[in-house]
């Protein structure tokens, strides 16, 4: 009886974490974010034809330098100025050819608006020390700690190798 009450309390009052979400990779595989428990995550809404697209290079560098403790995941989106290719194959080819991207990419998603994915609805509403609300542009970054909690959010102008981000990688 006590165990049942504890489980019910936990289900009702436990704050959600990023581990409660999944997504489909750019090559069609379902990925549960819970598979990355114990590592930090850097989740980034990306676009291939944006002034910030060159940040793919630094995201790849982060992936190579900190891959043992940080998982970088790009979420291509066409929510801002038609700056993403039409299909996942074109996106994947562009990223690999131009930036050598081999970190995880999701299929193209909506990061705002009526069709916003549940993950980005959570990320834009979750409490964090920076700010919450709609994503303003491509290449906003969300740093998740090893417990699945959003700990920092960075606007597009903060580059992936900026000290604001790298000093947080534990």
UniProtKB/TrEMBL annotation:
Report which superkingdom the organism of origin falls in: Bacteria
A Pfam family this chain is assigned to:
GSHPx
InterPro entries, per the entry: Glutathione_peroxidase, GPX_AS, Thioredoxin-like_sf
Keywords linked to the UniProt accession: Oxidoreductase, Peroxidase
Any one GO molecular function term: peroxidase activity
Keyword Oxidoreductase annotated: yes
Q: Which family does it belong to?
A: Belongs to the glutathione peroxidase family.
Name by which UniProt lists this protein? Glutathione peroxidase
